[in-house]
Description:
The protein folds into two domains: 173 residues, Rossmann fold (3-Layer(aba) Sandwich); 215 residues, CoaB-like (Rossmann fold, 3-Layer(aba) Sandwich), CATH 3.40.50.10300. Helices cover 34% and strands 24% of the residues. It has 14 helices and 19 strands. Helix 13 links the parallel strand 16 and strand 17. 43% of the residues are buried. The structure holds cytidine-5'-monophosphate. Cytidine-5'-monophosphate binds next to helix 12 and strand 16.
Amino acid sequence: MIKRLSNKRILLGVTGGIAAYKSAEICRRLQDEGAEIRTAMTSAAQKFITPLTLQALSRNPVHLDLLDAQTESAMGHIEVARWADLILIAPASADFISRLAQGRSDDLLTAICLAADCKVVVAPSMNRSMWEKKATQNNMGEIQNRKIDILNPGEGDQACGEIGVGRLMEVGNIVNSLSEMFETHSLSGKNVVVTAGPTREAIDPIRYISNHSSGKQGYAIAEAAMEAGAAVTLISGPTNLPVPARVEIVNVGSADEMLEKTLNIIERTDIFISVAAVADFKVESPALSKIKKTGELKLSLELSKTPDILLEISKLKNGRKPFTVGFAAETENLIKNAEKKLREKDLDLIVANNVGDPTIGFDSDLNEVTVLGHELNKSFPKSSKKTLARNLIAFIAERCLESIAYG
Ligand code: C5P
């Protein structure tokens, strides 16, 4: 069975209402779909259900306090916000919704929501009269304007004894709705090829030249493209990462091999995203057996250039060139160098990535980039590589459709 939320990190925020007891079930059902769960509770929520319950189910400590030095040093509210692919507040009380509408950040959960770049989803639950009040409805309108998603409450018997609208959405429907939110359809019917990871250029049968690329950004982009409805092939150098579900993997070693496998499928590719950190040089003639240590203090290797895969693809003629996106990993003059590559490699877009900053780039889980195109420049702020990947794919999908529409 396909788990619709595998690899997804969901922060479940619980606020103070009687439906808080259902948060335990939500946690379990989201886990059944493969999601990794962390939980945060307001102090009112802890009057209805104990943190121990959510800690045991989520197998992670519960985030409770904004100003608690110990929990903040373990994983602070900014890190929690960045960790999450999606934040679900269920149940969301009238008071929490009002505080969210005001943009407050004086408790942990509101601070996490304010710090988050990922999707925030609110599942209200309250007495029908509280739900109907203009104050609540105005607050709902305000948070919807800010692109916060609402899982509308249902109608029926309420814990307070009344009948009306205000019941927390059924748990199964919450899980279905969240799963659908990850599937955007913006690339439906498109074939996307992503290259990722490092390449390895052999010195002899034992040794090779490579680089620090972890493959995380490329794998996240492949997954985001798949969620956007594309048929995705991931051509990957050696990494330690799990292959995203429903993505076709082609494992390669060297730059030459990566070029060969890419050319094999490029004819039926609509979008080519070159995230791989391809080695620029290879050993001209790798030794056929292990190079032995000798009395010599030096060993010289003759290097020659590897093929520039991205350039080979962008040079394709007669309508065979896909919409082509490159990455520019730079340590200095980021924008200038990226612009140069955009022009010289004749790309549709280039993603400029400052790998000199140790908090982002290569092995980090975070990244921050600027995308350049012909007369366009858009910054994507620091976020998890997965959130960034989704935002990049949405942007690439828009640009690609525009380029088809305007030729
Ligand atoms: O010129 P530079 O290596 O900085 O360009 C980076 C971009 O080119 C990346 O998108 C990378 O995947 C691609 N590239 C390639 N083949 C190479 C070198 C880089 O496809 N041999």
